[in-house]
Design a protein that fits this description.
329 residues, 8-stranded mixed sheet, alpha/beta, Spore Coat Polysaccharide Biosynthesis Protein SpsA, Chain A
Length: 329
């Protein structure tokens, strides 16, 4: 029996992308139609834009695109909730309406031609296909070093993260149905999908420069994302604090014994420099430790509230999301 062609939804988070969206939207549509012509996907596939509370003309552009071509659809969040929540909103919107999703950023940096290989891997039985950067030549030395160091550090902490993979990935609706059971408020998608399991593989591609506009991920946001990922996927930092505390305690005991021996031998001299150094060292360690522990306590507090991770305020369709599918059938 011939396997039916899968319905693909390309999920694209958008935040203040009025400059780049008119350039990349036709590219996504062209790729969708190309895959359809090759017989890889169904003609009922769609390009789903997720407006993440943009303050510019992004949502109006999405609405115009949806009127011009039925392949374009869009949803809008009630306010800006961040990139990860925007991707999640799109995936949860898509999970009951399609067979596979591919999430990709709007800026045109990720190679859309890698989608062909992703869909092929799905046909070969893979439920999750990670888009992995083969090299980072477009990044500055600082960004490349810190990014690669982050992935290595995450793996050191025991978190299962695909090296040099961001949020460009193919995920089947089967996986998304199980992923919906993950109810964390603090989400880090690139570390959560490996936890679901199922057969997976990676597709490698080269990343290019942003086509237009400016990046909405400055250093502060990247550091916040990294910290969120570490504390969401691993408790090893707390274990490291315990080990550090034990090590410092043993060092303190050794220092106390040495001081006692020196006092007995009458070789002690008055001096505040060593005392100040020790106090500063211990004080710094204590404050850092309390900060890390506080981070975990704060995340536990936020999780206990069970606040919604996203709220959809608008859709480009008026009735149910399957109305155009019924018309095509």
């Amino acid at each position: 029996m011939k396997q039916p062609k899968p319905i693909l939804w390309i999920v694209i988070p958008c935040y203040n992308e009025e400059q780049v969206l008119p350039l990349t939207a036709p590219m996504f549509l062209e790729k969708l139609k190309s895959l359809e012509e090759k017989g890889k996907i169904s003609g009922r596939s769609r390009v789903l834009f997720v407006n993440d509370g943009s303050r510019d003309d992004t949502w109006n552009i999405i609405c115009r695109l949806a009127k011009e071509d039925e392949h374009y659809i869009g949803i809008s969040q009630s306010r800006n909730r961040g990139h990860q929540n925007a991707v999640l909103a799109g995936l949860m919107e898509a999970k009951d309406q399609c067979d596979i999703t591919i999430s990709i950023d709007c800026d045109g940096q990720d190679d859309i031609n890698a989608m062909d290989k992703m869909v092929e891997e799905y046909w070969n039985g893979c439920e999750v296909v990670y888009g992995v950067r083969s090299k980072r030549e477009t990044d500055t030395w600082f960004k490349r070093t810190t990014a690669e160091g982050f992935y290595k550090f995450m793996n050191f902490l025991g978190a299962e993260v695909v090296f040099n993979h961001a949020d460009y990935r193919l995920v089947s609706s089967r996986v998304l149905q199980h992923f919906a059971d993950f109810e964390e408020v603090n989400i880090f998608l690139r570390g959560m999908f490996p936890l679901v399991g199922f057969k997976s593989t990676s597709v490698y591609y080269e990343r290019s420069e942003r086509m237009a506009g400016k990046s909405h991920y400055p250093l502060s946001k990247m550091l916040a994302l990294a910290l969120n990922g570490i504390t969401s996927l691993s408790v090893k930092p707390i274990s490291m604090i315990t080990g550090l505390g034990l090590g410092v305690s043993l060092l303190g005991v050794a220092f106390a014994i040495w001081a006692l021996v020196e006092a007995i031998l009458g070789r002690t001299v008055a001096g505040w420099a060593s005392l100040v150094c020790i106090i500063c060292l211990l004080g710094g360690i204590q404050l850092i430790s309390l900060g890390i522990i506080g981070r975990y306590v704060g995340k536990t507090y936020m999780e206990s509230k069970h606040r919604p991770r996203y709220i959809i305020s608008d859709r480009t369709w008026e009735d149910n999301p399957r109305h155009w599918l019924e018309e095509d059938e």
